[in-house]
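pls design
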């Protein structure tokens, strides 16, 4: 028999603030898609309270509505009462997993998500067959064959692989500023980000060095823990938090150019609240800065090179809603000569990536991807700018599926072109 006293508690404090006004409903991506009250924040709050108080049994039908939440936190932006909804949903998932053994995926996919994706070296090894197939020129037909044969979540993982393979070798540990030194900082590189956006990491470092920053990239840094945390694996997430706290102890600002990682790092104090060994992780959380925040505070000079393109901007959920960062990326990009930055409808509505949500809930994730790329296509822009690797892979995959020529880039990629020229190589 399960010892109920040892189970994680559901944090109902956020639920007590909800006045059921419904202003969160039009902000919620799942409610926008299917119009079900149970798939709205207000409906999920009622479900969690019912489960916590024993009025609702945590059966598949009820729990699926909780699983379908993207944890995008758009409801927190919309809420006039200040309901910190993510604390409720994340604590509920941790409780359900501990109490009922509930799993949102099959064993293979769960193993991949929890034991492969958070470890860059393992991901690189796993991608060796893909790199070989690409070198032999057989990857595209092989991928089509595998997608037809594999069950949907694993096929979805293949669909999300970008056309480009892992780029670049290892980053050095220290990069000195070029010219007058203005600041010391560290770069958090992430797990999937280390593999699929290392070119953006290098551009970030080159841009920071050019602006007078000495950049440290600690070798012992690990996954931020977001994948585990959002799956109810709070213990593993705390282990990652403690490890990163030790790794970055004594450093200055820690910069994140991946929205999901930055949001998770900033919440380490909340994650380890009340634990005796939380000080280093909580200290790291206080020093984390999103790259757009840091560059804006640094006050960079206007970039010298024009970038003559029309680009649409997509707000990554964990940048806009979790970190409240909307103006800084736009302001930096508006300094770039001849870059026309176009706003699109529903810019802050989730694209369906949401960490590994697009693997766990492919049907809803696919609907949201189509909704997002519809808006991008209607904008007439050939470039989409977004500050999160998950969003980039999701939008790229949907554009590729419909045969749309679309370049998806990080704001730093465009800033690098503007400071160093469009043909500048990445060191």
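designed seq:
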């Amino acid at each position: 028999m399960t010892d109920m006293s040892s189970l994680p508690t559901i944090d109902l404090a956020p639920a007590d603030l909800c006045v059921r006004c419904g202003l969160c409903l039009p902000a919620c991506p799942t409610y926008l898609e299917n119009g079900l009250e149970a798939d709205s924040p207000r409906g999920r709050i009622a479900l969690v309270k019912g489960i916590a108080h024993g009025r609702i049994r945590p059966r598949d039908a009820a729990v699926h509505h909780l699983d379908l939440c993207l944890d995008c936190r758009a409801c927190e932006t919309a809420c006039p009462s200040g309901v910190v909804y993510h604390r409720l949903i994340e604590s509920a998932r941790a409780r359900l997993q501990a109490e009922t053994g509930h799993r949102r995926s099959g064993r293979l996919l769960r193993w991949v998500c929890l034991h492969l994706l958070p470890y860059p070296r393992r991901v690189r090894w796993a991608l060796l067959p893909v790199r070989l197939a690409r070198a032999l020129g057989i990857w595209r037909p092989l991928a089509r064959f595998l997608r037809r044969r594999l069950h949907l979540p694993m096929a979805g993982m293949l669909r999300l692989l970008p056309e480009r393979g892992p780029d670049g070798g290892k980053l050095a540990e220290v990069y000195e500023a070029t010219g007058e030194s203005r600041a010391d900082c560290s770069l958090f590189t992430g797990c999937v980000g280390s593999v699929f956006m290392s070119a953006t990491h290098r551009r970030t470092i080159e841009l920071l060095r050019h602006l007078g920053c000495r950049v440290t990239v600690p070798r012992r840094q690990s996954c931020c823990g977001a994948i585990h945390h959002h799956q109810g694996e709070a213990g593993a997430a705390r282990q990652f938090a403690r490890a990163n706290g030790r790794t970055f102890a004594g450093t200055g600002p820690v910069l994140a150019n991946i929205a999901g990682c930055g949001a998770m790092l900033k919440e380490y104090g909340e994650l380890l609240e009340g634990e005796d060994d939380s000080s280093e992780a909580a200290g790291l959380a206080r020093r984390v800065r999103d790259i757009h925040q840091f560059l804006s505070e640094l006050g960079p000079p206007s970039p010298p090179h024009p970038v003559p393109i029309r680009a649409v901007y997509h707000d990554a959920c964990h940048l806009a809603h979790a970190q409240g960062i909307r103006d800084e990326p736009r302001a930096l990009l508006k300094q770039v000569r001849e870059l026309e930055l176009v706003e699109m409808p529903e810019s802050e509505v989730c694209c369906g990536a949401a960490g590994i949500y697009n693997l766990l809930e492919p049907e809803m994730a696919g609907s949201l991807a189509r909704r997002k790329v519809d808006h991008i296509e209607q904008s007439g822009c050939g470039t989409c700018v977004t500050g999160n690797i998950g969003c980039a892979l999701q939008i790229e995959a949907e554009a590729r599926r419909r045969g749309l020529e679309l370049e998806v880039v990080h704001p730093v990629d465009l800033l690098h072109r503007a400071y160093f020229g469009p043909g500048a190589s990445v060191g």
